[in-house]
Amino acid sequence: MNRRHWIVTTAVAAAGVIGFQVGNLEVSDHLPEEEARPLIGIASVDGEAYVNAVREAGGIPVILPKSSGAEAIDDYLECLDGLLMPGGLDIPPAEYGEEAHPTVAPLAENRYRFEKALGTAWIEKSDKPLLGICLGSQWINVLHGGTLVQDIPSELGGNHRGLDHAVILEKGSRLAGIFGETEFEVNSRHHQAVGTLGENLRIVARSVDGVVEATETTDAERFLIGVQWHPESMVPEDERQKKLLRAFVEAAVGVK
To answer: In the chain, N or C: fewer CB atoms in 10 Å?
Structure first.
């Protein structure tokens, strides 16, 4: 069994633990059609929306066990073709040199250590595609040396949790090119956002009230994008958001 086959098998086993299947994948000694599809690692996922969105975009979703060990991380970097960092609770503010605001609900320690180790290695040791969603977008900024607005309502005013609102994309950005337009409605579930921008990133979308809604790398050769909204929840009804997941998966095709 090669390492790629092993990691797919592991993904299916992990999927069974949380009660759903990965891409309707049947494990066998020969996976001719599946072998042509990129393996997309999903860090710390505990629901079906991310899995379904990746599968429908043409990738094989791989649920990653939370291991921050160097050997496991190296295996992920070698075998996976793309990484999706999903939503969740808050990054401990000590990670970017600040005291915690009273509203901060930090990640569980094992998830925090795992996502920090995996995200750092993925950014620094590979050129493979990375898509960050909500918390994942915040991780991208923090791992590039940036900070976060810890609580939008008390620090900036306004609410970005539990509603829909418009986002305005920067013309000429990779993200605008993917969507083919520069303004549309998205869902919103976050109380944090980019504060100080990390190195080698640029802001490519804001809400009408100025809150940062998306960033991307300044490296034109790499797919590395973070969005504050949840496209995986919108794709069943919103054809527009399918474009982002498809672009991500397509960027991972043939990447080794």
So the answer is: C
Catalytic residue IDs: 134, 230, 232
Q: Is this structure's pTM higher than 0.85?
A: yes
In the chain, what is the greatest distance between 2 CA atoms, to the nearest angstrom?
Answer: 56
Q: Helices 135-143 and 109-125 meet at what angle, rounded to 10?
A: 60
Res. 45 pLDDT band, cuts 50 70 90: confident
Could you give the percent of the chain with pLDDT greater than 90? 79
Tell me the CATH number of domain 3-252, given options 3.40.50.10470, 3.40.50.300, 3.40.50.620, 3.40.50.880: 3.40.50.880
Q: What are phi and psi of 235, to 5 degrees?
A: -60, -30
